[in-house]
Design a protein that fits this description.
Length: 271
């Protein structure tokens, strides 16, 4: 039989494949989130519980918070799970997300070599940044518009350093895990969320040097993308996720995620 005779059959089969793949896509909730929530291991713990409760599959796209928010603005995600409150609230004001709800929090910590050659050890993050800016020490910045990067830039700005350019300052343009790996291999300093740090296995000589400052508070929010802006988004399943993750059940799963007996994230939904 010639190819021409089979062409209608191939076309029909292709249509079936496209319909099937479209059905699968329609069932999956696309969540744009941060590398910290992914690399901390939280989603491997949280999402199976969500699926068991609702039957909804979730596809996570782990990028920096700035990139995740851009995905929501373009309609490339159904729901956002991020940690830059000012940028999140701006997205709601612009109408690209219907609301922003707090979900959980942990904190940032400054890690560096145990010998601490710069002498930053303590509880004052701004004092630590002043010492780093005046030193030749290696400081690894994510440089990726993530929530962690945004926090770092706030600290530099607070000490009058809008664009840090000291000798040891390096932007990797990478996620939290790779940034920690670079710091470990160069005996450098790096700002990280505590969750990713606790799950990080390649610490080499790094230890936590600065923690406990109230300015290191790190809050995560969840935002459903607005179907009025992007009618194709999976608003129904986004609503299910938002309702579940802020419910007593979802908050309990978050509280139950621990490494070595230490809790990584703390429920913070306003029920």
């Amino acid at each position: 039989m010639s190819f021409g005779a089979l062409a209608p059959v191939f076309s029909a089969l292709a249509a079936i494949v496209l319909v099937a793949s479209g059905a699968v896509h329609a069932q999956a909730l696309v969540m744009a989130s941060t590398t910290s929530t992914e690399q901390s291991g939280l989603f491997a713990h949280l999402l199976p519980a969500f699926k068991a409760a609702t039957g909804v599959d979730v596809k996570v796209v782990a990028v920096g918070t700035g990139q995740a928010i851009d995905m929501g603005r373009r309609g490339d995600a159904d729901v956002l799970f991020v940690h830059d409150q000012a940028a999140e609230e701006k997205l709601v004001q612009e109408g690209f997300a219907t609301k922003r709800l707090p979900v959980m929090y942990n904190d940032f910590v400054l890690v560096g070599p145990a010998a601490d050659p710069v002498g930053v050890r303590g509880k004052d993050i701004l004092a630590a940044f002043k010492k780093l800016a005046a030193s030749p020490a290696s400081f690894i910045s994510r440089g990726d518009r993530s929530g962690t990067h945004a926090a770092e830039l706030r600290y530099w700005k607070a000490i009058g350093t809008e664009a840090p350019k000291f000798a040891g300052y390096r932007e990797c343009g990478c996620g939290m895990g790779p940034a920690l790996n670079i710091a470990a291999s160069t005996a450098g300093y790096v700002l990280t969320d505590r969750g990713t740090w606790l799950n990080f296995k390649n610490r080499a000589g790094l230890v936590v040097l600065v923690e406990g400052d109230k300015q290191l508070f790190n809050q995560y929010g969840v935002l459903p993308v607005n179907p009025a802006k992007h009618p194709h988004v999976n608003a129904a399943d986004a609503a299910k996720f938002v309702d579940w993750v802020t419910s007593a059940a979802g908050q309990g799963v978050i509280a139950g995620y621990k490494i070595g007996g230490e809790q990584l994230f703390f429920p913070h939904a306003k029920n």
